[in-house]
Amino acid sequence: MVLPKELIYGSLLVGLVAALAVIGSDSKQISGIRNLFVGQDNLARFQRLYLPGFLLAMLADWLQGPFVYALYQGYGIDREHNGYLFVGGFGASAVFGTVVGAFADKYGRRKFAILYCLIYFGHCATKHWNVFGVLMVGRVLGGISTSLLFSVFDSWLVSESQREGFNGEQLGNTFSLAYFGSSIAAIAAGQFGEIAANLAPLTSVGGGIYYGGYVTPFDLANIVLVLCMIYISGKWQENYGQSDGQNGSNFGKALTAIAEDKKILLCGLICSAFESSMFMFVFNWTPCLMEPDQPVPPFGHIFTGFMIFCLLGTRVYAYLSGTFAVEDIGLIVMIVSAACHFTVFLVSNVMVRFVAFLVFECCVGLYFPTIGTLKGEIVPEDMRSTVYNIYRLPLNVAVLMPLLLNFSITTTFAVTTCLLGVAVAAAYFLKTVPKKSAEQALEKVSIIGQADN
């Protein structure tokens, strides 16, 4: 059965109408969005300081992300070697991620946000070479920079929020706005990237060097990265894992904190399980919606639909956060996400799978402000980037498994369903851990850390 275009385009309309309905029915959201642009209070000024840097970083990532696989195909790289390149990226993220997190805590999150721009610039620049070794170097750089993107920016935000005295609800509001903006950036990036890719055909200039075609979105991403670096350098102030910036947290102390504090451990299980399932979904949604001997679906419009539902999720979070505790929202998100992946495992009908993917993307939009708020409340400030990157270690290992073992789609979604089952259990038990238990564990970790020093 072919995926009907009416369903695809209808989903775009439904997602937009639903997002507008959620915003329109919540005066608090309308007030928050208006305050972001015209407000003069400390929170509005802080959000206007943070969001441009974060959104430029995300826009650069979104501009090149949809075109990596297509570029490799354009270079004539087969599916097996394509998989090797992605293994290189996730392997680098697993190996180097924990190290760069500790360094960011010690030497400054602002510096490492700038380092993200520099390393990602190198990643995009390597795409001009149709040389496997150069492309592998690019994937390694991409893996390192991805670790920085999903740890350093959040760490800087939480640290500055605490310094400004913002509460958990205000931090959650900032995260919600950040990923609302990221969804809009993703929608725009898909369209601008497609336009850029069609400006000129992929052309060789000799020596394995190319320009045009699917290389162009990477060049556009590099322009955005330069703007991001200039903005962060001029606008953001530095912050560290510790206030003096001299005694940054270390890997061993972070592991001790995870072992001693159930909340930190359970939060990590949620992060690793959900995000590894999300990345496996990214690799597999395309073949899931294709049928043998049938026309290729309009993947660009499908991707736009996914991003609209992700945007819807950020607005649903803002709506629910006024009524439910963040732990309750997290549990709901994990249960619905597991049901979506289990549906794909059970059902081969492309229309059912498409609807399940839309609901899952809505959950993704809910997930990021939820987990950002949870980590902001739970993870100790002096080792924040380190712990965030330790959370990504099992994530990268889990994502490597189906790539290395060449799992079928059915097997892959069986694995993701099990992972999300773990996330459901972790989210449930996180609700049951008394707050004072976490505080006592943190005090114990602090005593251990002082003894080590």
List its salient traits.
mainly alpha
Q: Spatial order of the strands in the main sheet?
A: 1-2
Strand content: under 5%
**How much is the radius of gyration in Å?**
21 Å
Shape: globular
Number of strands: 2
Termini distance?
A: 64 Å
Number of domains: 1
**Average pLDDT metric:** 86
Specify the helix fraction band.
over 70%
CATH C-level name: Mainly Alpha
The CATH topology label is Growth Hormone, Chain: A
Largest sheet: 2 strands, antiparallel
- Determine the structural class based on helices, strands and strand pairing: mainly alpha
What letter string, H or E per element, gives the SSE order? HHHHHHHHHEEHHHHHHHHH
CATH homologous superfamily descriptor: MFS general substrate transporter like domains
Q: Which spans have pLDDT < 50 for at least 5 consecutive residues? A: 243-249, 437-442, 444-453
**What is the CATH architecture assignment?**
Up-down Bundle
